[in-house]
Amino acid sequence: MSKYIIRGGEPLCGDIKIKGAKNSVLTLLAACVLVDDVVTLHDCPHISDVDTMIAILRRLGCRIVRNGDDVTVDSRDISCEKIPSGLASELRSSVFLLGSLLSRLKKAKVAYPGGCDIGLRPIDIHLSGLRELGVRIIEKHGYIDCDSSKAHSADIMLDLPSVGATENMIMTCVFLDGVSVIRNCAKEPEIVDLQNFLNRTGAKIEGAGTGVIRIEGVSSLRGTEYTPIPDRIVAGTYLIGAAMCGGELCLSNVNPEHLSSLLAKLPKSACKVTCARDKINIICKGRCESIPKVETTYYPGFPTDLQTQILTLQTVSKGTSVIVENIFETRFKTVPQLLKMGADVTVNGRTAVVRGVESLTGAEVSATDLRGGASLVLAGMCAQGETRIDNVYHIDRGYEDLSQILSSAGVKIKRID
Ligand code: EPZ
């Protein structure tokens, strides 16, 4: 099992180029199944979730070539509609293939999806949306068996603005005759990216980024090349790292608009942020003031995927902070690891009260999920002494070359396998 060993206390200084967004690339790979042609996605990060999604697509009969940051997907010979539990259980995004498989093959058999252990993560909204579109669904033996031979366009309302459910509905409606309307949609940038990609292949979708999306059915889609949006969560993680350790970072290939809720929260007394079109420069000096309250919510509000990272910043800020996690039920699982490092955090249900301490101290800790693991790295970077983090495979799911990138920015970090 790989570990990170970090000696804290160094500032974070350097230039970091952000890669394509994990949560866009995974969805676009699923959307490639809709295209009876060849698609090339550029700027794809080398992370294990992308590797897993590629393995799933290959099992379905897609031919895939990875060349550097480019992933070329040829879906012309796709033949299998079943995603085995071994692969589906590793990845939440496997459920996104329901929509694309149903549109392309009129049937899909997907095992219940996996993903980070941050909550129940039901798929009831996905399934109720599919049923409203006339998809016949049988759930048994841990599989979801779907048939869309009698599917039809419809006007559907999602109970919650679920990112995955919105993406699944879009992909299910692409070839349905007439106009389908999806209401109470998620507004995340990754949804807009999916719309832009599919429209590039010939789909007719409008409204992504708002609460109402309209899809006019077309007969087929053609191949294309596409560059996904940058990873706002990876970028936000590095910005929070600079706020914790001090230093000066220049992030390139970022969209400041996608990070507006974080940039609004970073304490202006210690963090000087300047933004250009696709760059964010941050200079951090001194200890941050605590942020009185952070509540995670749907985009464009503060993202749940940066909650553990901002909580970790609060553990070493001046004052007390209240963090409320409104999206997932158990996304404070990293707190016990932070307590080992001397943090002062009290969790009660969906609320964490964080009393900032002068400094954390290095300890042996374990990553429990992707963003929690990245947060432990940030904690180790600013703690006194040495921090050892195991189970770093969680972090490999969403952060490419984390130790090399941080090391090049002045952090004393090494990975031992
Ligand atoms: C996507 O997950 C992201 N994953 C998550 O990122 C992200 O945290 C989440 O959106 C919220 O932004 C990918 O895109 C691969 P949801 P998703 O459906 O689609 C409830 C990361 O770290 N819900 O928007 O699964 C659900 O329980 C990962 O990169 C239902 O109740 O999230 C949650 O409380 C973690 N029923 C809320 O909705 C459903 O059918 C939002 O979940 C679906 C969701």
Description:
- The mean pLDDT is 96.
- This protein has 14 helices and 24 strands.
- Helix 12 links the parallel strand 22 and strand 23.
- It folds into two domains: 3-18 and 230-416, Alpha-beta prism (UDP-n-acetylglucosamine1-carboxyvinyl-transferase, Chain); 22-226, UDP-n-acetylglucosamine1-carboxyvinyl-transferase, Chain.
- By secondary structure, it is α/β, with parallel strands linked by helices.
- Helix 1 (22-31) runs parallel beside helix 2.
- The strands form six sheets. A four-stranded mixed sheet has the order 22-23-1-24. The protein has a four-stranded mixed sheet with strand order 2-15-17-16. Strands 4-5-3-14 form a four-stranded mixed sheet, with helices on one face.
- It has helices at residues 22-31, 48-60, 85-88, 97-105, 124-132, 163-173, 189-200, 232-245, 260-265, 307-314, 335-340, 370-382, 393-396, 402-408, and strands at 3-7, 12-17, 38-41, 63-67, 70-74, 82-83, 107-111, 136-140, 143-147, 155-157, 179-183, 204-206, 212-216, 224-226, 247-252, 271-275, 279-284, 293-295, 320-324, 344-348, 351-355, 364-366, 386-390, 412-416.
Count of helix runs = 14
Binned, the helix content reads 25-40%
Outline the low-pLDDT stretches.
Answer: none
The CATH architecture category of the largest domain equals Alpha-beta prism
Give a list of the ligands: ligand EPZ
Structural class: alpha/beta
CATH class of the largest domain: Alpha Beta
CATH fold description of the largest domain: UDP-n-acetylglucosamine1-carboxyvinyl-transferase, Chain
The number of domains is 2
What is the β-strand count?
Answer: 24
Name the CATH superfamily classification of the largest domain. Enolpyruvate transferase domain
Strand arrangement, major sheet: 22-23-1-24
Cα gyration radius (Å): 21 Å
What's the shape?
Answer: elongated
Strand content: 25-35%
Overall mean confidence score, pLDDT? 96
Distance between the termini: 6 Å
**Major sheet description:** 4 strands, mixed
